[in-house]
Amino acid sequence: MLSLTQVRQTHRRRRRPYSDKQHYQEYILQRIEGYKNSIGRDELLRLGDEAASELQATAEGQFVLTEVLMLESVDRLIMKRLSLRPYRRWKQQFIRLRAAQRTPTHWGLEPHCPLSPLLPRIEPEDAALVVGSAAAPTTYLLAAHDAAVTFLAGDLGSVDRVESRMAAEALSSLFESYVTQFDPALPEFLGFLEGLDIVVLDPGVLLELGGPGRNELIRDLQRRSRPGGVHVILPTCPAIAPEALRSVYEGWTQEEETKRKRRGTQARHAAGLILCKPTCPEDTP
Fold it and tell me: Could you give the CA distance from residue 38 to residue 75 in angstroms, rounded to a whole number?
């Protein structure tokens, strides 16, 4: 993820954004895999038989029937069944759709939601972690900006809804989700996550933990964040205001944009908190 300084000075990204061709290939793959998962084994076997018959009829003994050819032939049959659009027709709609998906209002968020200041800084495949059911809409917004998003929630219903929406909006290629209990064992569960660029936290998940447990979870998420990474504390829990967690972020800096917003015309709305991890140890000049 780009820093504020990098955005202001160069407006250049360190990683290339995905091309429309890459998005199209992901769209096709997601639709094909979704169809395979929606049909039974018998129907899938019939598709394989149909693909094999077509290959044998057209090959005329010129090549050996391999597993790769079979898979490609099955995929072509599924594309035909689903009437998937060719690239040129798909691109016309995709450009409009992706532009809409990259706005907070598309997901029911306020235009000046706490995540808005970070959107110009997100780069393709930035590692993002979204924690808590109330933070689910930010999952879609981050994925629309090509971040690699992991979503955690305490109930299966929330995870199922997010997975379905991500698939319907063709955003699930860099997305993972897990159902987990928010208890002292969570840091061990998160062992596979390191070098996070963005963490979005719904403070509501902390209600189940005592004071020491809350601090330990936040500090664990801090350790998993890379230097210069950011944490976004959402105003989603009336019982725990974002500012109440500021003391746990000793040494982290608060983004100036959220400070200005708090003093400006948006102050009447509940504001979140954006905190940035130091880029070097505190004793380093």
Answer: 14
How far apart are alpha carbons 183 and 11 in whole angstroms? 41
Cβ(263)–Cβ(231) below 8 Å: no
Quick one: the chain helix, strand, coil %, rounded to 5? 55, 15, 30
DSSP labels, 226-279: EEEEEEEE-S--TTS-GGGGGGG-TTPEEPHHHHHHHHSGGGGSPP-EEEE--S
User: Above 70 in pLDDT, residue 283?
Assistant: no
Domains of the chain, first to last: 21-87 (no CATH), 109-276 (3.40.50.150)
* φ, ψ of residue 86 in degrees (nearest 5): -65, 165
- d(CA 182, CA 266) in angstroms, rounded, equals 32
Q: Residue 285 and residue 283: Cα distance in Å, rounded?
A: 6
pLDDT in tens, 170-191: 887 789 999 988 877 777 778 8
User: By CB neighbour count within 10 A (0-12 exposed, 13-18 middle, 19+ buried), where does 154 fall?
Assistant: middle
Convert 109-124 to b/e letters by CB count within 10 Å (16 or more is b). beebbbbbbbeebbbb
